[in-house]
Design a protein that fits this description.
260 residues; alpha+beta; Sortase, Chain: A; two-stranded antiparallel sheet; 4 helices; globular
């Protein structure tokens, strides 16, 4: 009798373990499929609206190659009228996405560029910023996805050597501008840290803020900054705690009109 009860109990435990395993596998598969759908949407978008042309130039017996990167903003705005820019890194090249902005900072946490519900969300500008990058400090947010998409690759900038090798990123705007930014500080802070300040009453407040960024950075990069500096601050989660954030700050170095 006792052996029978033990056998029944063992079978129940085994069945429960199998059910837990199957449920866990289902959840992991669902997460994988959701990530894949998000990735596929942005991959298709890049194929539709982005063009890259390599131009070779002869310079003093050497051949130099220049990549001309263009975005069809008319098509982008047909898909999503809240498009304000495109952000691109040469390396990590995975970061090449449209940037959107709406009336709040919640919508695009779980809504893709095309308006679909997905954990990938979208890359979006802070609702309080001017959408033409004219502010002293413009914030752009994106998720740190476990599959390496969205802003996950920003974690590479925890390494100062990687930053030295890949110090620039680019912003493209609907009015035809290509703006080049140089990364000058990388920090891990709390979500409510003063590093997230966007408004400055005068030059002195702004210079104090820039000093705080430098002082809280993991390392120093880039050149000196003055009160005329315009910066873009890229923000993502660290996936260590719910309130911890990784901030990558870049300062505007060059601006040109594409096609001129």
């Amino acid at each position: 009798m006792r052996r029978g009860k033990r056998r029944v109990f063992s079978n129940i435990i085994l069945i429960a373990a199998v059910l837990v395993f199957l449920f866990s596998g289902y959840k992991l598969f669902s997460i994988f499929m959701e990530y894949r759908k998000g990735d596929k949407e942005y991959e298709n978008l890049q194929e539709t609206v982005v063009e890259e042309e390599t131009i070779k130039q002869e310079e003093e017996e050497e051949t130099a190659e220049t990549v001309v990167f263009t975005v069809d903003f008319e098509k982008l705005k047909e898909i999503n009228s809240e498009t304000v820019a495109w952000i691109r890194f040469v390396e990590p090249s995975k970061i090449s996405y449209p940037v959107v902005q709406t009336l709040n900072n919640d919508k695009y946490l779980n809504t893709t560029f095309e308006g679909k519900r997905n954990a990938s969300g979208a890359i979006f500008m802070d609702a309080a910023n001017a959408n033409d990058f004219s502010d002293r400090n413009t914030f752009i947010y994106g998720h740190n996805m476990k599959n390496g998409s969205m802003f996950a690759q920003l974690r590479k900038y925890k390494d100062a050597a990687f930053c030295r090798q890949n110090p620039y990123f680019y912003i493209y705007t609907p009015d035809g501008l290509e703006i080049k930014y140089e990364i000058f500080a990388v920090a891990i802070v709390e979500h409510d840290a003063i590093n997230y300040e966007k408004n400055f009453a005068n030059d002195n407040e702004y210079l104090t803020y820039l000093k705080i960024i430098r002082d809280t950075a993991r390392y120093r990069a880039g050149g000196e900054l003055d009160a005329g500096a315009q910066i873009v601050s890229l923000s993502t989660c660290t996936n260590v705690t719910e309130t911890q954030r990784l901030l990558v700050h870049g300062v505007k170095r060059e601006q040109k009109v594409l096609g001129e």
